[in-house]
Design a protein that fits this description.
Two copies of one chain form a homodimer. The first copy, chain A, has 187 residues and is mainly alpha-helical. Chain A has two domains: 83 residues, Orthogonal Bundle (Arc Repressor Mutant, subunit A), CATH 1.10.10; 91 residues. A three-stranded antiparallel sheet of chain A has the order 1-3-2. In chain A, strand 2 and strand 3 form a beta hairpin. In chain A, helix 6 packs antiparallel against helix 7. Chain A is elongated. The interface between A and B is large, with 70 and 70 residues. Chain A binds a DNA duplex (28 and 28 nucleotides) through helix 2 and helix 3.
Chain lengths: 187, 187
DNA sequence: GTCTGCATGTAACTGGTTACATGATTAT
DNA sequence: ATAATCATGTAACCAGTTACATGCAGAC
């Protein structure tokens, strides 16, 4: 049920249309909770039915009409309620781990290539996040409120990506070591 | 599509019934890819239709009959094919991050409690994984084959849980610091 | 004249969860 | 008695993805 509430957060801070929300999701919130525009439209409709948000049709010229949503008092209450409610830590789901575990039943060289690819992807993400950290939060000690919370989530992303890149490297080292054990010790 | 292949791995190493697979999933593979027994039964049926596995009804006395599955040559081929196929790094989905991001719109004390709870859960998992590491893999340098791959996946779990516990602590420190900033400096 | 951006939508499908049912055996 | 374990299943549901459709505006 987090998508609804992620949208409530986004709309609380700035009202907008489904399209705009989908674009916002490509940044910040989308790093840890993503959704396609179809899913967003559907959820917005349901949220409007529930009375959590109010939609207003806005006619535009030169552009398609749009429907702008605002959080209702009921929506704010729901968000506050949800925040205080305990959540189960979600389970991990990593296909790469399944492949590593399955490596003995296939081509180990291919698994290595795959792990290297993932390592590079995670390293890229990590670099992006570190750039954002430097640029958007140069003085983290002085942060408070929403800016602080945004920073803390970004820190989470950084830690996760660090963990993944390091793990991929560890796996690569171990797998390649067993593939060519003698060569490692030659002068 | 990873559940099918996780089941193929499990069945390749030891044949078994749906029930047994579900129980195995509670350990090892289940740490990074879990499934309910209903989902497993359904997927097994589909896999049998595809010819990846062969099921044999086994009558037991004193216990309910069961259906034991074995991987067919086609199943082995499919597993090998899948292993070599590239996969997209899956997106993160963490509700806790959404809550932290939303903290300004609700009760920050409740968010702190939630973060502390998650930190403890992750710390428990971490301890469990470290125990498994010590007990099941006392000499990781000598590992090879499936045992090595199991170990490497466990290492991933350890890194992830380390990252999460540390992140939760960082968030807690930051949030509690802003709640009572003056008291931190009193003698 | 083709491509990108804005803006929304339907339909079909996949993957997974929740709730419930059955029925025997063994352990407390 | 009653609870847990073994073993499988149906049905309904929820969340999310993929594919496709529409149509105009502005840029190249």
């Amino acid at each position: 049920m987090a998508l609804e509430h992620a949208l409530l957060v986004s709309l609380t801070e700035r009202f907008g249309s489904g399209y705009e929300l989908a674009r916002r999701f490509d940044k910040s919130i989308g790093f840890f909770w993503s959704a396609t525009h179809q899913q967003i439209y559907r959820v917005l409709r349901r949220m409007e039915e529930l009375g959590w948000i109010d939609g207003t049709a806005v006619t535009q010229d030169g552009r398609p009409d749009k429907k702008v949503y605002r959080v209702s008092p009921a929506g704010s209450a729901e968000l506050a309620r949800w925040i205080a409610e305990p959540t189960e830590p979600g389970k991990l789901r990593d296909e790469l781990a399944v492949k590593i575990r399955a490596a003995a039943h296939g081509d180990i060289a291919a698994v290595c290539a795959e792990v290297a690819r993932h390592r590079d992807r995670h390293a890229e993400r990590l670099e992006l996040y570190r750039l954002m950290e430097k640029k958007d939060f140069p003085a983290p000690d002085q942060l408070s409120g929403t800016a602080l919370h945004q920073y803390l989530v970004l820190r989470g992303g950084i830690r996760v990506e660090e963990g993944f890149t390091q793990w991929c490297q560890e796996v690569l080292d171990a797998l390649e070591h067993t593939r060519t054990p003698e060569r490692q010790r030659r002068p």
